[in-house]
Specification:
This protein is of the alpha/beta class. It folds into 3 domains: about 230 residues, Rossmann fold (3-Layer(aba) Sandwich); about 170 residues, P-loop containing nucleotide triphosphate hydrolases (Rossmann fold); about 70 residues, no CATH class. It is about 35% helix and about 25% strand. The protein has a 6-stranded mixed β-sheet with strand order 6-7-8-3-9-10, with helices on both faces. It has a 6-stranded mixed β-sheet with strand order 16-19-20-13-21-22, with helices on both faces. Strands 2-1-4-5 form a 4-stranded antiparallel β-sheet, with helices on one face. The N and C termini lie far apart (about 50 Å). Bound molecules: adenosine-5'-triphosphate (ATP) and magnesium ion. Magnesium ion binds next to helix 1.
């Protein structure tokens, strides 16, 4: 398309955070009507670049052109007026508002939103939903919607405001497989109707399935742009991390010993006080990984929080290392040998405003080596933090950086480092590689196998069937809060597991 100006052109973009160079003279070209993937390691600078494009961050140098016209935004509001829309890594909807209310909220329209008649708003939403296959109910309250539906609302919100170019930052990280395939077809549909999509994902399968071209970033620079059809996942992984990534973990056969986590007839309610776990029983032995496979929303959230002591148990038993812990406080469980890596890392595992070092010392700050005779020892906290940062390859400007400033993948490495460093006897991990790049995913998975081989009992809750098949020694399929069966990982076929995950008995 020689005469058509590029939808987005970024030239020599520089963005610094203090001494950290997050974007180092980045160039990016996006053609109108294409789906472009932005790929790169955790911390490579993808989100930063998109925040610069969207007017959320001001750049230190460089030019941005939209449809050939230079622009300089001072806020997202200005970007929206110029036809940009962004769906963030963490949704930004108001949960207590309806879909329609969220859509008109903060709209850069000169008219007062209240003056816009509800019927007109509903009609516009319905027209947009129908046009792009984005089914949602305009009157539904956002807090009642599934994650996938909330994301549709985010996309609709951008379209409602007239977005021609849509930026989606890891939109599939929290979706079920079905929701992912729906989203990918929505994106193709948008592109076919002349919209331009910038799609950030760590999942190479999705990138291969729905994009036209791929731009790879590394260490704050763009290193390559390729046509999707002319490249393999292995080549992409190498461009991103600079080494071979195997996508498969070699592990020896588990040598399980005594059961150290026992769950018997567990009944737990969800937030709406409806039963989410219905009589679940299983045990995890020292030296094995029990994978809990299932589609998101089948009781996983309630299982992880109940085991950690963050949610009451209605009936049943939780036993840790022989002790009844059904009603124990989280603290007592940690002391009994439990470590917990929650799926909601920002809500439950990290204090965003605290430093990396303090976050690494969390839960254990009142013990040796961090505290002696009642005094906090900052030098011990810092020393340990430095060791963990280097050992777990947590990319951070320093150990005093606030945890909220880490890139998504690096925040997750921090949480894992803290959990594994305790050498727990029982490890409950939920979605441990969500949002991680291919290199970090491989790294984390190896660490989990090592912990297993040191004798930890690991409960791995994951909605990624590939991850379960890669790591688990035995697999429990969870559906609507019940166990659909437990299988030897060697003997379970993905097809059978998939059927059971959908609630169909084989
Ligand atoms: N607001 C901020 N303040 C300070 N540093 C930041 C801020 N936002 C990002 N950074 C740093 O800039 C670098 C790039 O981060 P960015 O979030 O753009 O990475 P990313 O490519 O999106 O990674 P991920 O795949 O993990 O989401 C990281 O080192 C990160 O810690
Ligand atoms: Mg990011």
């Amino acid at each position: 398309m020689p005469n058509q100006p590029l939808a987005v052109q970024m030239r020599g973009i520089v963005k610094r955070f203090g001494t950290l160079l997050a974007n180092d003279h980045v160039d990016l070209d996006v053609q109108r009507g294409e789906v472009l993937a932005l790929l790169g390691e955790n911390g490579a600078g993808k989100t930063t670049l998109m925040n610069v494009l969207y007017g959320l961050y001001s750049r230190d140098a460089g030019d941005i052109l939209l449809d050939g016209q230079p622009v300089h935004f001072h806020s997202a509001h200005e970007a929206i007026v110029h036809g940009l829309g962004m769906v963030h890594q963490h949704f930004m909807l108001v949960p207590t508002f309806t879909v329609a209310e969220n859509l008109i909220l903060g709209q850069p329209s000169p008219r007062h939103p209240l003056l816009e008649r509800q019927r007109d708003v509903y009609r516009r939403i319905e027209a947009l939903s129908a046009r792009y296959g984005l089914q949602v109910e305009p009157g539904a309250q956002v807090s009642q919607l599934s994650v996938g539906q909330q994301q549709r609302v985010e996309i609709l919100k951008a379209l409602y405001r007239g977005a021609k170019t849509l930026i989606l930052d890891e939109p599939t990280a929290v979706l079920t497989p079905r929701e992912v395939s729906d989203l990918l077809s929505i994106l193709r549909n948008l592109a076919a109707r002349g919209h331009t999509i910038i799609f950030i994902s760590h999942k190479l399968k999705e990138v291969m399935a729905c994009t036209d071209r791929i731009t790879v970033m590394r260490d704050g620079r763009t290193v390559n742009t390729v046509e999707t059809g002319k490249v393999t996942p292995a080549e992409l992984a190498r461009m991103m991390v600079g080494r071979e990534v195997t996508f498969r973990i070699d592990k020896s056969l588990a040598q399980p010993r005594d059961p150290v986590l026992r769950v018997v007839d567990l009944w737990v309610d969800d937030d709406r006080e409806l039963p989410a776990l219905r009589g679940l029983s299983f045990e995890v032995r020292a030296g094995e990984i029990l994978g809990v496979a299932g589609v998101e929303g089948n009781g996983q959230a309630e299982l992880e929080t109940a085991l950690a002591g963050l949610r009451p148990v209605k009936r049943g038993l939780i036993q840790l290392c022989g002790q009844d812990m059904t009603a124990a406080l989280p603290r007592a469980r940690v002391e009994a040998g439990l470590a917990y890596v929650p799926s909601d890392r920002y809500g439950l595992a990290l204090l965003r405003d605290f430093s990396v070092a303090d976050n690494l010392a969390l839960e254990a700050f009142d013990r040796l080596p961090y505290t002696r005779r009642g005094f906090l020892r900052q030098s011990a906290i810092d020393g340990q933090a430095r060791a963990l940062v280097s050992q777990y390859d947590i990319r951070t400007p320093s150990i005093s950086t606030r945890a909220g400033q880490l890139s998504g993948g690096n925040a997750q490495k921090l949480v894992l480092a803290r959990a594994l460093d305790r050498q727990p006897r029982v490890l409950v991990v939920a979605q441990p590689t969500r949002g991680l790049d291919v290199g970090a995913t491989e790294y984390v998975q190896r660490r989990l196998i090592e912990a297993r081989d040191r004798g930890a009992a690991i409960l791995l809750i994951s909605t990624e069937l590939d991850e379960i098949l890669n790591l688990a020694d035995r697999i429990l399929v969870l559906y609507e809060g019940e166990c659909m069966g437990v299988f030897d990982a060697n003997r379970a076929s993905p097809e059978t597991l998939g059927m059971l995950m959908a609630g169909r008995k084989a």
